[in-house]
Amino acid sequence: MKVVTADQVRKAEQLRSLHRGPLLLLPNAWDALSAKIFEEVGFNAIATTSAGVSWALGYADGENVPWHELIEVIEHVTDVVRLPVTVDIEGGFSSTTPDLMFRIEELIGAGACGINLEDGLDHGASLRSIEEACERIDAARRAATRAGLGLVINARTDVFLRSGNSPDRLPEAIERCKAYLAAGADCVYPIGLSDLSLISKLVTELKAPVNIHGRRGAPTLAELQAVGVARVSTATTPAVFVAGALEDAMKKLIQTGSFDHFTSSFDYMRLQKLFTPAGK
Question: How far is residue 5's CA from residue 65's CA, in Å, rounded to a whole number?
Fold first, then answer.
């Protein structure tokens, strides 16, 4: 395992402090290029999207990407950006606590400052028990402490993933989120929840950082900040958008035979400059 550097420790604390306000907006990258562009436009930290990384490497989402390939992507991302990077590791790519701790140590060695760890199984079709999910959060925290890093843990609950904004699921979400925070999570992520009144109730009850998924149909950043949300992540939204834009452009090329619609704020030299060391 690589030695944790003072710079990585500083970045982890920087990421943690960003949860204290104002609202932290996290773009989710899937490779070094998307991460570098997110840094270029002025974000304060970068997350990864498990689905985007998987698709870019040729796999379906759902822990299908080989772990060593995921680690290589994270190493590329942390090598090219100066910002803190938090990584979506889905359910942890492990079936046992010792395996999870080993994964966390490898991830820290790749330069990560934070993680997403979810309680869902089979894309939210079922959930781990609260006890098992807490045990895994605690294991991640212990592995990070052993490595010498204050890893920022965002504990995702999939309570709303299948049921949408069902008010009936709010009590279970609150119970799980409280337990995850007590187990060592820094932030909780009720993915699938977008009803502003339910979000407000959750934030008020927890009195802790809450992460909301930013997507079409979700409340605005101003609305989320007004009810006390600490963090909004874009998840798959940018990756899906880029895939759609690329598909549309290539269809137009086939249909028109013209390249004139390929307009962008980027050109070859500007992209090249993103990855060219200073002074060269």
Answer: 28
